[in-house]
Design a protein that fits this description.
- By secondary structure, the protein is mostly beta strands.
- The protein folds into two domains: about 375 residues, Jelly Rolls (Sandwich), CATH 2.60.120.200; about 90 residues, no CATH class.
- The chain contains one helix and 27 strands.
- Strands 3, 4, 15, 16, 18, 19, 20, 21, 25 and 26 form a ten-stranded antiparallel β-sheet that branches.
């Protein structure tokens, strides 16, 4: 962006923001509710350009989330002396199919490496999501005690009319079952061993590549199981099976602005891996990509939800469902986890778009839901990057490549938030741009509501890229990993002039 400096080295600023590993970002003095402490450095003076922080990642040393933390998980903080990307506050990770967890062919949750080319041939911030469903096993010899049952599963072929076979070994004796994808519906039939399975759990209209579970069978006392090309799960109760909706693969890099702001604008470019799941596989995967929030300074900077110290929050996520790619947004209220949920009646202009029963979640299509979100309530300009032309309310189901491009294309995203003018006022703002065009706006958000226990003067002071993932549409034995990259991030105290 012309006129906007990039790669600001905070060590050269006065007052300093980051002095290096030997000098913490903030002191250990007691925290105030706005996140500051006595003696804290302050944000740089107002610059007419409006830039608070930027990072192209090109000048960052190569770094992975396990490079200085062999376990590869947990929180690493600059103020604690941990080595994290320069100029950032902290990182939190939780990989699965990574070298730090014993899988040398995989990747850590976060990588910033020269071999991972950025938007301009430099580096980028890369997050890996690992498909994981707790409880399902596929490795080694698995003992079974008396009175236990087992189910097996595999992912059906991505090609129609193709068989997929899993072999279960019970005390060394193989038993096979096979599923066949149909050309359209994705239903599954067959079972070559009547003792194991005669009917697969059919999942019609989920499409090819969906997960197929067998019927349960009882296993004899003191047996040993093994499995190839599939997963197995064990239960003591025929009618009760573990069923987790698990959010894993945490991969978050976080910046803290000690003084906070009433308004912030953040822009960055995002890219998805060639193997990114771009069609509807059930259960539909969701990845948290970005958030802006307010932290009280107490407890952990990752302590969200109603029992934490964070709020309000504005989030942007990615999902592909049976209705196509979704523009997933979420609003949470404040201050600092008080008034955390926002019901549909709390936000007059877009509350009707909230997912029923949620506390402020939206799963929006890029057609009708956004039809009046452009400037002056017009149709936003969203390029159809597959078919040419533009996405409109009449475009039908829109898929990932139409919005984000085929292959490893880059997309520019901008997010703006502004606190409501006074407590309880419904005039807080959220705006979103893609490739320089506004695609979403809400101007009636009561970000801060009355609180007897929290500071009502909360400010936006946390910005995080990455997040965790609900990614269970692949079986564990596949050890599936996909990535997205973020580059050329800029944090400003106002909307750039060219977007007004």
């Amino acid at each position: 962006m012309p006129g906007i400096p990039r790669d600001i080295d905070f060590r050269l600023l006065d007052p300093r923001i980051v002095e290096g590993r030997t000098s913490p970002i903030i002191s250990t003095a007691p925290g105030e509710r706005d996140g500051t402490r006595a003696g804290d450095p302050v944000d740089p003076p107002y610059d007419p350009v409006g830039v608070i922080f930027s990072d192209s990642f090109d000048d960052q040393p190569d770094w992975t989330s396990a490079m200085y933390n062999p376990a590869g998980d947990g929180v690493q903080r600059a103020k604690d002396g941990d080595t994290i990307p320069q100029g950032w506050y902290s990182a939190r990770t939780d990989p699965k199919w990574s070298p730090s967890r014993g899988y040398p062919g995989g990747h850590e949750s976060i990588e910033i490496k020269a071999e991972n080319s950025g938007r301009n041939a430099g580096k980028s911030f890369r997050c890996y999501r690992h498909a994981t469903t707790p409880g399902w096993q596929f490795e080694g010899q698995i003992p079974v005690t008396a009175g236990q049952y087992v189910k097996v599963r595999h992912r059906a072929s991505d090609s129609p009319l193709t068989d997929t076979t899993t072999t279960l070994f019970i005390n060394g004796t193989p038993k096979e079952f096979t599923s066949t994808t149909t050309s359209l519906g994705g239903t599954h039939t067959g079972g070559t061993d009547a003792n194991l399975d005669t009917e697969f759990s059919s999942r019609p209209n989920r499409g090819i590549g969906s997960i197929v579970e067998s019927n349960p069978i009882q296993i004899a006392e003191n047996s040993t199981l093994a499995i190839t090309n599939g997963d197995l799960i064990i239960s003591n109760n025929l009618s009760s099976w573990p069923d987790w909706k698990y959010w894993g693969s945490e991969s978050m890099l976080l910046q803290h602005l000690p003084q906070g702001r009433d308004e912030l604008y953040v822009e960055f470019w995002i890219q998805f891996s060639e193997n990114w799941t771009r069609t509807a596989l059930f259960p539909y995967p969701t990845s948290k990509l970005f958030r802006i929030s307010s932290w009280s300074g107490d407890g952990s900077e990752y302590g969200a939800f109603s029992d934490g110290n964070i709020g309000p929050i504005a989030l942007w996520d990615h999902e592909v469902s049976g209705y196509g790619v979704r523009n997933r947004l979420a609003f949470r209220g404040g201050p600092h986890s008080d008034n955390y949920g926002l019901g549909k009646d709390a936000v007059p202009d877009v509350g009707h778009l909230f997912v029923p029963g949620s506390v402020g979640d939206m799963s929006l299509n890029f057609t009708g839901h956004l039809a009046t979100m452009g400037p002056g309530n017009t149709q936003p300009i969203i390029e159809d990057r597959v078919n040419g032309g533009f996405i409109t309310k009449n475009s039908g189901t829109v898929w990932h490549d139409q919005i984000f491009g085929a292959g490893e294309a880059w997309t520019k995203v901008g997010i703006y938030v502004k606190m409501n003018s006074v407590v309880n006022a419904t005039d807080g703002i959220f705006r979103q741009w893609m490739n320089g065009h506004r695609i979403f706006e809400s101007t009636t958000i009561p970000w801060i509501r009355s609180s007897e226990t929290r500071d009502e003067n909360a400010k936006w002071n946390l910005i995080a890229i990455g997040g965790n993932d609900y990614f269970q549409c692949y079986c564990n034995y596949e050890m599936r990993e996909e990535w997205y990259a973020i580059d050329d991030l800029v944090i400003r105290d106002s909307i750039p002039q060219e977007l007004l």
